[in-house]
Amino acid sequence: MTETRVLDTGSVPERFARGWHCLGLERDFADGKPHAVQAFGGKLVVWRDSAGELHVLDGYCRHMGGDLTQGTVKGDEVACPFHDWRWGGDGKCKAIPYAKRVPLRARTQRYESVVRNGQLMIWHDPEGSPADMDALPPVLEGVGTDRYTDWTWDVIEVDNAHCREIIDNVVDMAHFFYIHFAFPTNFRNVFEGDKATQFMESTGRPDMKAEGYGDEDLVLKSEATYFGPSYMINWLDTDYKGFLTKVILINCHVPTGPNSFNLQFGLCVEKPEGVDDATADYIGEKYVESFSVGFMQDVAIWQNKAPVQNPLLCEEDGPVYQLRRWYEQFYVDKADIETEMVERFEFEVDTTKANENWRAEVAENLARKEAEDRAAADDTSVETADA
User: Within a 13 Å sphere around the CA of 366, how many CA atoms are in the beta-carbon half?
Assistant: First the structure.
């Protein structure tokens, strides 16, 4: 009997990743109201105090379980709608209007937070360690000034996949051709410490130009780095017939449950020299539309695929197992992080054979489309003559 490979679907991790997670843009939490964020299998409440500082607590009151996100901000505290217990940003109950005193143990779960590049970041660790400030993503020079357009931001709910699915994309050269309709001409990965980077150069596919994906005149250079388990900065340089555009794309996610997450993405565009603000904003809007389509293409795959613990790989699939080993460091106690999870690893995919076959496929697609268009034109001519 011929032996077949068994698909190991495994099981999802019992814990959520240690590290910094982005909850969204600072400006979206700055209206003086409590905001709900689904995260880590529960709900968080986010609000801004009178000094303009953002705070993040567990979303449920430790008194009788009232939903703090349905309460109000009173002074610097968030007040529970059930009995008006007032909770401060340090996690302590500050006042109970109908009580003589506040119980000494009136504390709730607080998340350390930092605003970085106009985005709210919070630290999550199942072990309860202090936030690692050295693990924060870098400050992006010029972002938040007139040099760049304002951040856009969007959220996509993914309700049937573990967030490792999006991490796998870091090494997945081939999916750029089949899912995102591009020719990856150079593709390389570097993992080291808590960072994982993808370097890629690509062009558009001429057979997909009519669908709005661009052709080989569109040249892309991309450097995308995960800073920790969930936050990626993607520096993109595009050249279309000599028109150069620099884009910073944020691709991040927050786990909402053991097998679900909210995918968030935003971008800003460096304003090209000589281009007015309205045109720069228009360029940014077009990139938003493009990446929105791209992310939805990925989501459609994730929602319907099986999780695979033992993927069957060819050489051009890249270092999938090494990337997953890197990712594992965020799901174990810090004392259990092994050297091979964090030591430097580099790998470059040879794209020669892939592009040889892909270009032949694209040429066939173009020839078939030309024949179909010619046949359609001939049919139209016949119908016109008969009329």
Answer: 12
